[in-house]
Fold each of these.
Amino acid sequence: MRYQRMLVPALALVLVMVPTISARAQGEELPRGPSFAARALQALIDGIQFGVIIAITSVGLSLIFGTIHLINFAHGEFVTIGATVAFFLNASAAGPGWHLIPAALAAVAFGALLGGAVDRGLWRPLRARGTGLINMFIVTIGLSLLLRHVVLVLYGTRPASYAQYDIQSAIGLGPAGITPRDLTVTVLAVLVLLGIAALLQKTRIGTAVRAVSANRDLAEASGIDVQRVVLFVWMLAGGLAALGGVFFGLVEIVTWDMGFKLLLLMFAGVILGGLGSAYGAMVGSLVIGIVAQMSTLWFPVDLQYAWALLVLILVLLVRPQGILGRAERIG
């Protein structure tokens, strides 16, 4: 009986190894996983996609800080609201069942109107009363909690996806691949970022935004309507955050706290690129996205955000003002 007990595991091992031995004897190659170069290329593609989505959401955050020096902790909820509004119009049983494209456009418009309403109804009165920046920062935390729980009540805790472009086959890019949906999102995000750059450089309102960011008092003395510029920045930030939320929900999934989870990376991109610089936010967010995805080649996925923040710390130790930020004298 003892020998029979020892024989059973041995026979099982032989049965497992027989196909392998037979394949090697016949000269057949065993299936192998993708090479390191293929995985690195795939991680780079995913990182660029992730980075441009972060960039879209973080540009508005940087412009708000540049014009009124406010750190808007509620910016992540604008991202969530954009994604959930598009979901309601597109895939919710209680919604009208629109196609995702008009639903996304409506969500962007809603985000812009919400940004303008928050500025006119909350931030402009606080600025008129001379409220300090620390106090206003605390208000942004309260606003963030309020908006997040409103979304939680209306949307719920169950993750969901949009009705269109859910499951697609990947297009081969050498040893890597990308779905048509992800490729479209990446291209559209890059075009939006280029459009923002053109708006800031080629239009009167863009010139006014840059003037207010550089020196608010001088811009006001030069005849620029600062309040109008600030309102435009809030509406632009709300619309971009909503668009980024739709893109993020499309490539990942729509959840009630998705914007809050993305908020830390938005802050990291803004700080890494240089506080108050729209172009710095773009570059910093792209770096954060690539580092986060490339780190998964060596470390667990759960740590990808930690490595992105470590890069932020290392860069700031060498260049405290950020990649494209300007050094300022303090005191």
Amino acid sequence: MRAVQLVKFGEPREALRYTDLPDPAPGPGDVLVKIEAAGVCGRDLVVRKGAFPHVKPPVVPGHEGVGKVVEVGPGVERDVVGNRVFLSAIYDGTCDYCRRGFENLCRNAELLGESRNGTYAEYVVLPARFAHPFHGVDPRVAVVATCPLATAVYTLRHVDVEGRRVLVVGAGGTGVYIAQLAKVRGGEVYISTRSPEKAAVLRQLGLEVAAEGDKDFDVVIDTVGSPTLERSLKLARRAGSVVVIGNVTGERASLSPALVILRQLKVLGSMAFRPWDIYEALDLLKRGLIKPLYAEYRLQDAARAHEDMERGVVVGRAVLIP
């Protein structure tokens, strides 16, 4: 099969190699999925730079994927062949977090594209129970639900935005969906970006682009991380909430505890999503409540997709088509 491999850590054209790999075969309990669309997540860029010690090249990157089941391993009913599915992380289902409904915090989770080969490929093998069937959404659109929009759904479970001033920091692949969903949920939503091109698109969606001097937000959702976190705390009003979901550089942040104490802020972290959040995200797309924003790339152009994301020229998601 054709695939993109992370062969070493570094810049996109040095680290990502378009190559031939052996066709994978499903083992007991597995399915083989032919990928129709794979999303490029900001986490993929951090993985490529070597920020996560558990990632050992060579590995096929990518955890966002939509495709069709084309083969099953022993123990899997053949009637799932032909199902269109989205793929999720692999959870053990038995740890204390999984038992409490926090599969996203599973102690023994495996993420596609990190501890096993991921979705930058023509085919992926994974346990059948982590290939979730769906219908009614185009694969290129559905891949938006498999991480960015599902992350938005899960993030907004932590805070009430109805009738409140909300600032989304960063108009990247996740920020644009958090902002759209916060508006659907009744928030007065602002989003920050330094890109005039992105600002024009955001205004077309009916979103307010934050101006210099805007402050006193009830809820600030930071999709960037270290470079913006201290400023996000300053932009929240007293007794406001700051939700941190971004870590685009993988660096540590430096901030003053006084910002949190004197403003009596609630600072929350939100980690990814659960599989059923993806189903809610798909429903939002089906109902036309969220506009999918993505740019298509050929699989062999994955390095260029990474470069474009780092330059901030991709509005929404970069989607690889094998």
